[in-house]
Amino acid sequence: MDVLTTLTADKPVVIFSKSTCCMSHTVKALICSFGANPSVIEVDKMASGHQVERALIQLGCRPSVPAVFIGQQFIGGADEVIKLNVQNKLAQLLLRAKAIFIWSRSCCRGIHSPTGTGMPRTGLALVLCSILVLDSHMPRGLTA
């Protein structure tokens, strides 16, 4: 557990990830969509990655990644982060941790969400809507 305390100290947001994990990528994209700049630790690229992964499993992460810490507090994995977002609680956690300094739902109205709320309903919605936004900005004849 001490290894996790060391890695999360003095950082507003830390995401433990694996470079090949699609849900880790989704969680990173979601948190970045608020304007936060999380510290991302790719455990599969660390020499001590197995030790970190064991500590995450002992903490209750199943699977071990993604594992999100906001304000040095363990939040959980993808399901918990997406649930907080759907409940409109994720932005408040990021504000309290000083990961972001201002947030207004209206600043993103309709950009990431087909419902016009600015808040994706699920990680899949975030990914799909991001592709739609990217695709809508591509010149004709090019695809994302």
Question: How would you characterize this protein structure?
Answer:
By secondary structure, this protein is an alpha+beta fold. The chain has a single domain, classed as Glutaredoxin, CATH 3.40.30.10. The protein has 6 helices and 4 strands; from the N terminus they run H-E-H-E-H-E-E-H-H-H. Strands 2-1-3-4 form a 4-stranded mixed β-sheet. Strand 3 and strand 4 form a beta hairpin. Helix 2 packs across helix 6. About 22% of the residues have low confidence. Keywords: Cytoplasm, Redox-active center. It comes from Psophocarpus tetragonolobus. This is Glutaredoxin domain-containing protein. Pfam families: Glutaredoxin. It is found in: Cytoplasm.
Instruction: Please tell me how large the radius of gyration is.
Output: 16 Å
What characteristic shape results from the CA principal axes? Answer: globular
What's the arrangement of strands in the largest beta sheet?
Answer: 2-1-3-4
N to C succession of SSEs: HEHEHEEHHH
What's the CATH topology label?
Glutaredoxin
Protein structure class? alpha+beta
Judging by the overall fold, what is the CATH architecture?
A: 3-Layer(aba) Sandwich
- What would CATH call the class? Alpha Beta
Write out the CATH superfamily name. Answer: Glutaredoxin
Number of helices: 6
N- to C-terminal distance: 41 Å
Fraction of residues in β-strands: 5-15%
Low-pLDDT segments, ≥5 res? 107-138
Helix content: 40-55%
Number of strands: 4
Task: Report the major sheet.
Answer: 4 strands, mixed
Subcellular location: Cytoplasm
InterPro entries: GlrX-like_pln_2, Glutaredoxin, Glutaredoxin_subgr, Thioredoxin-like_sf
Pfam families: Glutaredoxin (PF00462)
Protein name: Glutaredoxin domain-containing protein
